[in-house]
From TrEMBL, chains A, B:
Pfam families found in the cross-reference section: Ppx-GppA (PF02541), Ppx-GppA_III (PF21447)
Domain of life of the source: Bacteria
GO molecular function, one term: pyrophosphatase activity
Matching InterPro entries: ATPase_NBD, GppA/Ppx_hydrolase, HD/PDEase_dom, Ppx_GppA_C, Ppx_GppA_N, PyroPPase_GppA_Ppx
Key words, A-Z: Hydrolase
Domain Ppx/GppA phosphatase C-terminal: 303-461
Name by which UniProt lists this protein: Exopolyphosphatase/guanosine-5'-triphosphate, 3'-diphosphate pyrophosphatase
């Protein structure tokens, strides 16, 4: 059964209504309304929500409430963060919001806000130990993560709107004052210097990652998992300081005047923590609120598995087939590794599994060229927990699961040395398994590989006639030879 | 409930198993196995199926039978055409096929084969009066169509394999002999000279259309509805005569040696019938067999409506919303036409409806950029009954249903004068209707438009609060003004 949760995020910079639709097997965002309310405008100077921003905020809440009642949303979670939290006239605003929209807005204390950012990060990346940075318009939260658990969290009034209003960086002196301020503030988190990765959350982060991705000439299918080095961030800060930031590709117009301060705050965290990069995720506070509802204990037990299963469940009509192809692919890959025909690591093994699970989802678009459609769906829907490079490898392996000579294509700039050979191995294993399961009835239970001189002999265990499987698999000798440098023989 | 029909097409050139999955609301091809069996090899000279091709055919049938039993197909329809029909040892082949595969292959008489080609054509194009050409490896069928009914049909042994074996065209003299032969044969169809369109079916046709489309620099999302002029066909024949045909982009390698004879046969039909072009469809005999099962009376009552509904049903989670947006879009478009703000014809009206029905299907890929995903699905799944130009306009209108300034983009070469303005109208109507239905609850029942001087006043009839609808619609003033040169006012 499909259920729907609407999260209304009353941020200091923008208000956003996001509808999540979910069942027992999949979830996705299905609607969104975004308004650049800037309720925090003028707050830094006066300490109170100003009349014009407050009126914009109330009108927007009214509209969101109408939308939710009209569309019959099951549940609504309106939450407010820094600007409203810190405003001296918060009570007045909340009362007006309730009266005009019927919505009871929950003001999140700093630690609660930090927790949702943390939930967004650990449920969409493989972060196990390190720090989550969540930069909003009003505040910034840092959460220390150990073995996926939040072990410490703090909030600082270092949001992008606030820092822009207070320091208006750009000229050297004002920028220097902002940097100084950040360093002083961050002295209160001594654990920042410890080891681990830095995962960053929020609109500023997404814009910076998109700009860095474009600047590096990478193909762009979203910024999920994209790693922005400190050097790349420094280059962006230089560009924002020397011309209109909104002219930098990847930076949205409405965020142009805030992005410099935000970038400097993030750079200050990298400096204070000795990080050489941050990883971006597309998820944020809103997803954090949703994940608390979706996952028992608010945590996915395996982010990558869940991402692959989520996508497969949305498109795949024949799950038994995909799971069987995944099993056979892994058996082949494992056997070949055991026989010394490749030395792939466990991360590669996970890519084999993911590509096999998703190879056929493109049939949902059209049977013709469905291998290409599978790639399109994988790249565009995205796979949280996998880096852009890994997602591209999974997409390319699906693309080449039927025919053609695997190539990295437009993803070349994203790839590492050896990835072309890795892709050959992925495609060869998935293609061979697909052919063993060509009859789609799991006739071939399992397979073993025995290497004899120049030949890899694939031995099938099966419950019925394997003629179609052998016939189909034997045809894949060319790619197998290219990937593993052995003749293929299916017996 | 999903049902599956496997059609096994034992053609003279290739054998093909196609699985159609269908429910009460949608259908699509979900699997396919193709083998270049060339069962007709050597038939022209000897009159009988030769041992080697016959063995290839029997092995392929065995494989197909295994596939069907393994995948639990509900129903199998194995049919054979010209080569097997005409072979002196047909009975021997059919008995061997039954023994080795368990399949009872039905040999289609010429008129039955022609009928399936006709059903493929009239159910995937808007052909009402004219001729359907179905060119296979062994034979060619022509069916005369009047008011969508088949009123005459004939089969000629002019298939591409047969003509290649007999005439081996390429050199001027042999080509001339083939042309002469075709002209003589076609004298027996006097109605060929009558009026109407020519729709063509079959693998040769699909290859020729793909090559012509590429030669004309058109973006290629399949050849459904693509019109190949006689001049373009002549150019292709020249290229096939002067170098390896398989080197011509669009021509598949396995068809390279047959395509010239096939092209000359089709050119002979254009000549004999005085046609200046043929329209290609991707459907063929196999779809004809399936349509006989799918449609009452074997005929779609409205090809375009069915194509749009088929696609919408596969992806759209909120049909009530799409249908309401379609209704409102048409009300707006109709009212603006009645008030003289545009002079679009009924074909344009159908595009408005289609774009509105399909605007949101991309949410099935991902909410982010779902307007772009809608276009991708529309272009790649295709819309039988619409030309490539029309399909592109529907796709672009869906692409611009949320934001952005509509543009023809890569489809420019496909378009006619005035299509940029037409696209503005489509996008403006759909976008406005989408906003009136932003709450997705059909609050706005209907709308009228009153034009007062420079302003078009949109008057809403509604059952509830229209604040969100008015607010959202009013924002679309810019595109409305661009499309209809009037200020928009929503009341």
């Amino acid at each position: 059964m499909e259920r729907r949760l609407a999260v209304i995020d009353c941020g200091s910079n923008s208000f956003r209504l996001v509808v999540f639709t979910y069942t027992d097997t999949w979830w996705k965002r299905t609607d969104e309304i975004h308004e650049a309310v800037r309720v925090g405008e003028g707050l830094e100077a006066s300490g109170a929500l100003q009349p014009a921003p407050m009126e914009r905020a109330l009108e927007t809440l009214e509209l969101y409430a109408h939308f939710c009642s009209a569309t019959g949303i099951d549940e609504i979670r309106p939450v407010a963060t820094s600007a409203i939290r810190d405003a001296s006239n918060q009570a007045e605003f909340l009362a007006a919001a309730r009266e005009r929209s019927g919505l009871s807005v929950e003001v999140l204390p700093g630690p609660a806000e930090a927790r949702y950012g943390y939930l967004a990060a650990v449920n969409t990346t493989t972060l196990s130990d390190g720090v989550v940075l969540d930069l909003g318009g009003g505040s910034m939260q840092l959460t220390r993560v150990a073995d996926r658990a939040a072990v410490d969290a703090r909030s600082w009034p270092l949001g992008a709107v606030r820092m822009t209003e207070r320091f208006n960086p750009g000229k050297r002196k004002r920028t220097e004052a902002l940097r100084q301020h950040i360093a002083t503030e961050l002295a209160s988190a001594p654990w920042l210097g410890e080891d681990g990765r830095l995962v960053a959350v929020g609109g500023t982060v997404r814009n910076l990652a998109a700009a860095a991705q474009l600047a590096a000439g990478m193909p762009s299918y979203g910024i999920q998992g994209y790693r922005v080095s400190r050097d790349a961030l420094g280059d962006l800060i230089d560009r924002f300081s020397s011309g209109p930031p909104a002219d930098v590709p990847g930076i949205k117009y409405a965020r142009g005047d805030l992005i410099l301060a935000g970038a400097i705050v993030i750079d200050g965290v990298l400096e204070a923590g000795g990080f050489d990069a941050f990883e971006a995720t597309e998820a944020g506070l809103r997803e954090g609120v949703f994940f608390e509802r979706l996952y028992p204990g608010a945590l996915s037990s395996d982010v990558r598995r869940d991402a692959v299963r989520n996508l497969a469940s949305q498109y795949d009509a024949d799950f038994a087939h995909s799971e069987h192809v995944a099993r056979l692919s892994l058996e082949i890959w494992d056997a070949l590794r055991a026989q010394g025909l490749h030395a792939g690591d466990d991360a590669e093994r996970e890519l084999v599994w993911a590509a096999a699970m998703l190879h056929d989802i493109g049939v949902a678009v059209d049977y013709d060229d469905h291998h290409k459609h599978s790639r399109y769906l994988i790249l565009n829907a995205g796979l949280p927990g996998f880096s852009p490079r890994e997602t591209a490898l999974i997409g390319q392996a699906a693309r080449y699961h039927r025919k053609g000579t695997p190539s990295l294509g437009e993803f070349e700039p994203e790839m590492r040395r050896g990835d072309a050979a890795l892709l050959n191995r992925l495609a060869a294993c998935v293609r061979l398994a697909e052919q063993l399961e060509r009859s789609r009835d799991q006739t071939v239970h399992a397979c073993e590989v025995v290497v004899l001189d120049g030949t890899a002999e694939l031995r099938l265990r099966a419950s019925g006639d394997t003629r179609i499987a052998r016939w189909a698999a034997q045809r894949q000798g060319d790619l197998f030879k290219r990937a593993f440098d052995r003749e293929l023989s299916v017996v």
